Records
---
Amino acid sequence: MVEKRKIKVVISKVGLDGHDRGAKVVSSLLKEAGMEVVYLGMYQMPEDIIRSAIDEDADVIGVSYLSGEHLVFTPKIVNEMKKHGLDDVLFIAGGVIPPEDIPSMKEMGVNKIFVAGSLTDPLVEYIRSNVRGK
Amino acid sequence: MPFLGESIEETVQKILAGDRRTSGRLITRLEDGDDWGKEIMKRLFPRTGRSMTLGLTGAGGSGKSSLLNHLIERFRKMGKTVGVIAVDPSSPFSGGAFLGDRIRIQHHTRDDKVYIRSMASRGYLGGLARATTEALRVMEAMGFDVVMVETLGAGQDEIDVIRLVQTCLLVITPGMGDEIQALKAGIMEIGDIFVLNKSDLDGSIQVLRSIEATLSLKPGQEGEWKPKVISTVATSGEGIDDLMEGIMAHQDYLHNNDAMERAAFQRVEQELGLIFRDELERVIFKGLKGTGKKRRYIRSIIDGKSDPYTVIEEILETFLKER
Amino acid sequence: MCSVDELEELEKGTEVDWDSYLKAYYEKPRSAKTWSGFDVREIYTPKERVGKDYDETIGDAGKYPFTRGIHGNMFRGRYWTRREVIGIGSPADTHERVKVLADHGGSGLNTIADITYEMGLDADHPWAMNEVGLTGVNISHIRDMATLTEGIPLDKVSWSLITASTVASVTMAQYIAVAQNRGYDIRGLRGSVQNDPIHFRYCGFRPACPLDLSIRLGCDVMEYCTRNMPKWYYTTVNLYDLREQGITAPQEVAFGFGIAMIYVDELIRRGLSIDEFGPRFTFYVSCHTDLFEEVAKIRAARRLWARLMKEKYGAKDPRSMQFRFAVHTAGCSLVPQQPLNNIVRISYEALAAVLSGVQSLHCCSYDEPMCLPTEKGHLQALRTQQILAYETGVCNVADPLGGSYFVEELTDRIEEEVLKIMKQVEEVGGMKEAIRTEWLDREFEKEALKRQKEIDQGERLVVGVNIFSTEPETETPLGVQRIPSESARTQIEETKELKRTRDKCRLKDRMKQLREDAEEGRNVLPAMIEATKTFATTGELMGTVRMAMGYSYDPMEIIECSF
């Protein structure tokens, strides 16, 4: 039977920060919203995340930042995405990110940012309406 | 539907050259049952069937992923390139899936000779995902020396993998004595190698004896493979040497007999069945899509005006007539 | 005053929704549950206390079972220690912030290490370079510790060193080495080290803290301090970080006690008596927004710990039975939406801590869900404590909520629930087994998901998040804390320079000693202290012990041992 195409999401932490509660909770919630979620875990480097996203053919890359590392790693992730031509993959960031940094992160190439305290529905809605067609 | 804006030939060449992005996309297309994917598979098929294929099956929590991790490491040390397919269950309620196997083998991502693909079962029974058989062929076409399949690990009926791969490992743990009792009759058919993982835990000796006793019930033909039982502790790496030896012994057995021929035959036989079933369902139901007919059929069954048998007969008849 | 035009404009612009206004007037609470989900009745009466003897179940403050506090006069004897956790960039950066807070009336120094240090990596490790000093102070060698403590009278101040992981052993070695180099007698040093390596599994890299290594090194520190530093608190078992995973108040206590008992059992196995080390055992607890529940939780914890120590472990010294604790207000209760509201949340949480008879308090900065704490944020948090201490009068009386029918009843119910959970842990084979089989991980994940769903579905209300929400903020009210990248660069360079220039022969001898001690099961602290004095770095000390215990030198498996 032909069914609706599944959305595949790769969720990861990056660098050494160990606060992974949010990333795990978001993974579970997206699963419950009908998506296929690959959780990479902690201690990923930008290259690992992008390699995994390519192998898994992800539609969305989600990265959770909690320790001020967003300005260090975001440009590196975006560069890797560009290098491999992942221009149709959504890059969503979440976690502890000061509002002052949101415009510059968007400029770097993050599609959307959901800071701590965000609710799940808007996230699911955002992914559904912005994900690529394959 | 064009594929990354390329011709079929270009796509095929890229996959044969091991291009990860194109291959990743192709597997997605196959998961979605896409026509274009099939066209590519037709071209790839002759270039498949040359890898060593292994299956890991066994209940959730038996340590399949940890064993897989060791096996990847060993094959890499031997200079072999490795493809991995890890199947996890889809939620029957939401249709979503948490593909968590990858996390235990994720550090191999840094090695570009390892390719890992997670697949959600999407309601498919038998321990595999709908497109696992095809993903295995894709990885073979990409040229991986070894391709391993980890089944989803829900229970005992994960038997599809046995015919799909050359060497099948059934992972069990102490405390699963009851399950083994229940399997008694069919246990010979399930694994080429039985891995008693977590063998440092209490009760392992009893389980070991129980498997060995069960295996000895069937004497086996002269020259036929006699399943091995190997104890491991995946967390510490104990017994992995023995496991590798066992795997290689089974591979030798396959190569030195006509057994490899039989394995290939079984695999294609199973694939034929699966693809046929899938195709048939897809083709026939395609005619119903968007017409509202399916809904009406269901309604008529609920209302007692018809029954599933009559409905299916009717659908088939209409289909055959239209042809 | 507005002009008439402006007034008309205003009236047009603000359409009041009178229906919801009326609804608000008649509004009543949606739920009658505590934060952790206990159902509560409309009112509690003396009936709840029938048959319960005061002395036996509650008792005066300062008396067994210490439900009401560990001191008879509580804050009349001494205020709680007002600490603010500090750790930014290099040791010099952190040293500056320490001095600012000391100038403004902080009463305890409290420094937190960065993640690279917690994992036992030197600043020049390939994985560390991106994040040196980002989340705390980086200490790669003895000179860093010397800079951090420069000019501070170590025999007079009480220093709290927040290093949770297996590296706490290195922290102690570095602190002791600096103190000895400056001529202090370590028997006089006062302060604490967090040293709860087991809990670090739940907020850190597991290969950096295998369970057996965690217990070994954690207990080496505990044993060494017990024998040599009588005024030092050698562990602060961290219930706080467990709670931050999203679990309930009773789970926080039950799981934390489970971990604490692993250490207690090991120290007894090493031949120490409970009354030798018991009096310096301390805890680190969360205070969430549910005021009464948090107070009841801590009262229950005090009673339970006292009974555990006396009945299970046979403690005789009342000090061994006292549950001493620091509070960290709940970071996970704070949200970046309408961030100034966090000051109010923190105040209630701090109030709960003080009403519970806390020994040492850290208030979060209101800006934590947006960035690392700014200096202004830090000062504001300190002011919150000072207002509590000097203006509110809440510290005049020991356990002011004691005797409240409701609080006593809630204390009993939390105690029961804690015991129930501890029994569950026993049923899965004890805490070590619960950790090994990842049973505990699954509990954390289950609870965290539940909390988020409650918020998503509006069953749990958070102002600014799922009720009274407004447009997202565009700036952080008091500015954003940035870590100067210059600090990280200097830190990395200095570490490399030290490795080039130190006397390698002496160092090798000392490291050989450390390796032998570690291999042969002797306490590693003495050898670590000596090796530190010859400029062994954090990563080298940890790596050597790791190898002796059969693990890879580098938890990230990138660099090799250079000895």
---
Amino acid sequence: MTGSAPAIEVKDLSVGNGVVTAVRGVSFTIPQGGRMGLVGESGSGKSMTALALMGLLPMGWSTHGSVLHDGVDLVKQSDRAFSSRRGRTISMVFQDPLSSLNPVRRVGEQISWVIRRHTGADKKAAEQQTIELMTQMKLPRPEQLVRAYPHEISGGQRQRIMIAMALACYPQLIIADEPTTALDVTVQKQVLRLLNGAVNERGSALLMITHDLPIIAAMCDTVAVMYAGRIVEMGPVQEVFRNPRHHYTRGLLDSQPTMDNIALDGSARLVSIPGMVPPLHNLPTGCAFNPRCPAATDKCRTVMPELAGEGLQAACWHPVDSASEVAAQ
Amino acid sequence: MVIYVLRKLAFFIGAVFVASVAIFLLLRAAGGNVAAIVLGKDATAEAINALAHSWGLDRPLPIQYFDWIFKMFTGDLGQSFRTKEAVASLVTDRLSVSIPLALSGLLLGLVIAIPVGTYAARNVGKPSGAVLALLSQIGVAVPVFWAGILLSVLFGVRLGWLPTGGWIDWSQSWVGAIRSLVLPVLSLGLIMAAVLIRYVRSAVLDVMNQDYVRTARAVGMTRTQALLQVGLRNAALPIVTIVGLQIAELIGGTVIIEMVFSLPGLSRMILANVAAREVIVVQSTVMLIIVFVIFVNFVVDLLYGILDPRIRNAA
């Protein structure tokens, strides 16, 4: 660790494959031990951002900008140098634990491989640590479970194995990309609680990617909202969720089902954002959200707004509070 | 795993039984009256019947079938009508040519295809990958006999390094035997490799796009480690499948290669005996080949169980 340097500092990150640009000039900083949520619809570029930070983009995609982490710019790392960091200082929990675990290796072997790779522990010590780690992850009968294959255990257990692999070496930053989306609702909470506790205990920073806003509210200090490859609003979770400035964030919050907006007769009064996420190869000029925005003006259709503001930042020419004034004029 | 093996074993035995009935009936249906053909059109009915009787061909079919099968179990593959030579001894001689030819051909094919196919998969989209894909495409289009003739012209005629054909028996000189096998094995192996490269390439390519390979890299494997430790291990399954399917292709290839290089192998023996209407010889040797092919597929099934815990447990 390098003193008080942030766990990760992303500057002007862009990700493209030569045809489309999925992430367009994203910047954010997560301090040591900080927790940031990244929200947005599918196709907003949040998963691409995560893969870019890990240096694991699919073939043909490349990264521009800089990602400072542990004293180096990750964008400039060779595969070999980067591989010695992955799983050690920066690691990731993926969405679907069944497809993300090697089907032909026992789960214990998969965890202990990570320990041996990064700590140089011998086989025996690594196996011992694996069992301890699995106990921490509240996996039942770890001595027997180490010998199981991924298909032999439940979805929740698989995700705990995945988390154990990601946290095995006490990384500075953990990226969790929709870690509970593929799980049964009944185990989602358990897995999140476990992830939360384990991250806390290690003092790691967390980048939580999800479209589930209550998860962000419960687990993160700050939140960034992505739309069409850009961060459109970013700030402390409470502020963003109570008083969103960007109309897209407003729309996202309004379309969350809560107990309040389900009427007594059982019918839900849910609001949805009109229109669709624009395709990356055909983005509107100006603010990408303008075709769906209730407050859009000619300025929004021509000039792209940048993030502005202290504390809570929004990239909007007519932020929510002033929107009513615009309409009144 | 035990249940899995037993199930596959039962399947193996069932397949062999069905195949034996099929080959028996097919030869009876296609053979016509063998004794009449052998004696020619001037033969009398008595002579034909007497010959058929002495060969046991006038017995009811089920009796002929069970007689043949039970004798097979004791290692008695029957005997040639004309020379009275035991089929078993005819076959063992021939196998000392055919087995080394087929197995070395397959082995060479794999030794070439696995690294080259993997390399092609890693370099997909780059010129080197495209060149390999093109070469293997051409290789697939080359008939095995033509490959044999080309190699024979180059190494046998032009360079004079190796015999262009013929056979020196192992008992005479094993160096000579190996020398006579080099070009046939090379032709067979290269053609096998061309086919296999494409399957290895697509199997590896498919596996490398799987989430678990990404996970392997996310916890610290380099691209090469992920390819060798996770990718190849998972790609082994589709590769083993295709090798099992290629066995039939391989045997077809040895028939042609034995002709091109005048090797006294099993395939040439079968062809000669088909022409001579030696029903028992053909029936028994074809049956042996079928058992071999089914056995290879049995081994492939067992390999699945070893390679993939999901299949092993599903049984």
